[in-house]
Every structure is written in structure tokens, then in C-alpha cells.
Amino acid sequence: MKYAVPLLGVGGAVLFAALRLAYFFFYQRLRATPEEVGYGYLEILSSQLVGTAELVLLLTAALVAANLVVRALRNAGARQWQAVATAPSREAMTRLVQRCGLAALILVLTCLPMLAWLFGIEAGNGTTVRNIYLRIVRIPVLAVQASPATISWTSPERQGLPDLNQRHCLLYLGEADGITVFYDVKTEESLRIPSTQILLNLPKVDSVPESCLTDGH
Length: 217
Description:
Layout: H1 4-28, H2 41-77, H3 81-85, H4 90-124, E1 129-134, E2 139-153, E3 170-176, E4 179-184, E5 189-194, E6 198-201
Antiparallel strand pairs: 1-2, 2-3, 2-6, 3-4, 4-5
Helix pairs in contact: 1-2, 1-4, 2-4
């Protein structure tokens, strides 16, 4: 208990730093920051902690199983049949699980930013991204989003407002502090608009219209 609290604090800081980097890589491609779309310290940890833990546990189990299989094959190749039939000692299993768990954690925290960067490129090209899952077992990896959107002013009769109806290539990224953030795939610019001044619609489509992907896309 003497070292548990400091270790948990350091572990939480390391976990947040890696996850924050992943969110940064995704939204940086869309000219926004995680905080602008509603992902601060608490939001990132609360939305990612369970999924990251599940991913680490799954990878740990896979690494442990792989090590046991390799051990059995090595002993079988050496014709040590008694060793093949004998399970590792409790101490050996504990050390193996600890090593595999550490390797799994490092691998997950290293790969998440790279995965976020790749999905950020897809989103920047107009593809819909609504959370990133490990497809095999549907474990949530990153709770990011870039969804095609149509918006209009709540009071279109006001003078001097830009015509949002002509913006057909928008991706909705999120909102925070009353400001909604969008990315225009065609012009490659970000928009920040007061949430109370727009009507937002998120159609269930896989990408922005094909006309948005011309002129260099």
C-alpha cells in the first residue's frame, strides 16, 4: 500500500499521456485539438480506461498462450516428454504473466497513436469514423469521431451570416464550451460555430459526397 498510490498516480499519468497523444494525432489531421471537441483529462480516461484494459488483458492472454505453446514445442523437440506434460510452477507462471502484461501494455500504448494517425488520415479524406474498434472482438479502442454533417443557422434571416447550406463536405468532430467544431473536407479548413446558433443533422452515411473528394483528394 505504501507504493500503490504513487504507482497508480504515475500509471494514470503515463496512460493519459499515451491516450492524449493518440487523440491529438487523430484530431490534428482535422485541424482541431482533443479539448476543442470535448476530450479533456477526465473524458479521455473515462472513455478509454475500460477498453484499454480489455485490450491489454486480451493481448496478455495471447502472449502467455503463445509462450506456453512455444515452451511445449521446444520440450517436445528435445524429447523432454515429462516437461511437456508438466505445467509451469506457480512462480514461473506469475513471472510469465507479469512479463507478458508489461509487454502488452507497452505495445498497446505504442500502437494507439499510430492507429489514431491512420484513422485521422481516413477521416481527412472524408471517410466516416465513429469510434475505433478492434474488429475481431469489437473492443473499443478510441472513442473518436468524424461524422458527415449538414448544418444550417437557426436564424437564417440575420444579415452577414455565411451560407452554411453550401457546405456539403463537413465532418462533425464534437463540441465543448458551447462551440461545435467541424472540418471541411473540400477546403481543408476547420469551422468553430456557437452550438446554439445552428441546427445539426448527422446522416448515417459512410463518407462525404464524392464531389468533395475532387481537387486533390
